[in-house]
């Protein structure tokens, strides 16, 4: 499993926290949407900084704030966190990843309880 680059567990009732073992994989795409996952999001996401392009954690029960480790996901192009119980602010470091270039963050969806100075509401 050490060569796994895409993990899509969309809509599987896992009812757990994100396993720490995932952070040691060379993941490019991690989709855990609607898996009834819970707990806080770990700064360990920074371990995926050289590979992770798409991260979908939407429609779960994550709590706490968006970790500063997300700032280090420099090739991230899509981050979906909506429909969770997250709070706080998106850091300026994560905002700095936004742009229109090939490796820039283009999709950023958040719950309304997270403040974001660089986000634009989409209709």
From TrEMBL:
Pfam families xrefs: LRR_1
Annotated GO CC locations: membrane
Keywords from the named record: Glycoprotein, Leucine-rich repeat, Membrane, Receptor, Repeat, Signal, Transmembrane, Transmembrane helix
Membrane topology: Single-pass membrane protein
The UniProt record lists the keyword Disulfide bond: no
Subcellular location: Membrane
The keyword Cell membrane is assigned to this record: no
Name of the protein in question: Uncharacterized protein
Native source species: Cyclophora tenuis
